[in-house]
Amino acid sequence: MGYRRVVVKLGTSVLTSGSKKLDKAHMVELARQMAMLMRAGVEVVLCTSGAIAAGREHLQYPVFPDTMANKQLLAAVGQSQLILAWSQLFSIYGLHVGQLLLTRADLQDRERYLNARDTLNALLAHNIIPIINENDAVATNEIKVGDNDNLSARAALLCDADLLILLTDQKGLFDADPRTNPDAQLIKQVANIDDSLRLLAGGSVSGLGTGGMATKLEAADIARRAGIEVVIASGHHPDVIAKVAARESVGTHFSAIENPLESRKQWILAGPATQGKLIVDAGASTAVVANGRSLLSKGIIAVEGKFERGATLLIVDQQGRILAKGMSRYCANDLTKISGKHSNDIEPLLGYDYGDAIIHRNDMVVLDN
Ligand SMILES: Nc1ncnc2c1ncn2[C@@H]1O[C@H](COP(=O)(O)OP(=O)(O)O)[C@@H](O)[C@H]1O
Ligand SMILES: N[C@@H](CCC(=O)OP(=O)(O)O)C(=O)O
Which residues are noted in the entry as ATP-binding (predicted)? Predict the structure, then answer.
């Protein structure tokens, strides 16, 4: 069956073709491919990087100290150049574009999330290509998603896409970074994202992109758990977008999981930033991962981070493996008092009680699979 709605993410590495400026000749080719897909009845959402690179180019490569304010300046200048370029390039194919600049705060707050979703749907309903980037000009580290791989996965969830295409400067995910390992082999199919796969995915060394393959794997993991297929491929492979959309074998394909998470759990996974960690013993690990139970105080060995009730935390085992992510019903202070203790001791120790479940299974996404 054909795809209905596709998010295409273009990394800086693709947009600049490895140079220091936007490669407009290649951007028009990518716009053509996306326009053809739209003409074939597939809705396309573009998540584009390149604002900072475009800002540097427009200001003729100023030598600035590497501060947050200067990056924001470059993004503010570059984003307008970037959207101007896309708007002109898509107009060649008779298409309008609409710009959405998002931060984590827009995805975290339910009302803003629904607002962004309505805008995306309205644009698509009018055959207008939504173009998304992080709102780098205003986003501080605290409210940033931080990289466009993760942002594109959240965009795919937001608009209920069925395919996410991450285009980059490599043919896909290799079993080692091909820049430093000439013998590295392309991994064509991934059925499960686990720690051994994460170890293969390195950061970005080109100085152009943010996050490298590590953030692409994070993005793939979020999307596939929401039932969205993911492909990582080269943005310079001829007709790559059409081929991926036609299910030809290009790059690395990640299958979607069979029973996608319900939307509340998708939001827990993709929305709020994690604010701490609960380290748990083997019994709690089995209860949470194998038996799908809530996390009780008895199994908690240590608490890391400062957080309030309702914060999103990682549950990790003593070997540091991430088991689950979920929302805590107790704050960090309370948890340090009751960890390792029986549920019956919560009330006597704290003077109140929000229930036995520290993280209830309905508020938890198990990740060790
Ligand atoms: N296992 C791997 N397979 C492929 N590329 C990898 C791997 N590990 C690290 N990388 C690096 O990831 C880079 C792509 O990510 P990045 O530089 O962030 O580009 P983009 O701008 O497309 O997001 C590649 O150039 C490569 O050096
Ligand atoms: N939002 C930034 C890009 C951040 C980013 O993740 O870059 P990349 O790894 O090239 O996709 C920009 O527009 O410059």
Answer: 9, 168-169, 210-216
